[in-house]
Design goal:
Length: about 150
Amino acid sequence: MDKKKPIKVFVQGAIPPEKIANSIANHQSKTNIGAHSIFLGQIRADEIDGKTVSAINYSAYEEMAENVFHEIREAAFSKFDITCAHIYHSLGEVKTGEICLFVFTSSAHRKVAIEACNYFVEEIKANVPIFGKEIFEDETHQWKVNK
């Protein structure tokens, strides 16, 4: 069996709406697909200790993170009958209201697409070495705690 090379996941800055729209449009010709599930992670303007988050600056051990993304992707294809899956995650600064995570799964049926998408999101949050530094409106910052 050929060992697949990890797919590039990281995008510098926010994930643009055009990338999301193009991903959807590129699947219209795939007539064996009956369902897509999409998760979009957006930066919230959380209030923490009286200060409001204005952005998150993401960093990662990129090579290690790409390998973990690859392992999650391979496990998902073994576990679910999905046709395709795409994952993009931001690096660098992403402002409140902007998209930092885009997970897109496709399958013949909706239940599988939804379950696979949820699997990806939970595995990414739990296992990928990505770090977010919350930047507050007063320009102070702190490391983000995943919830």
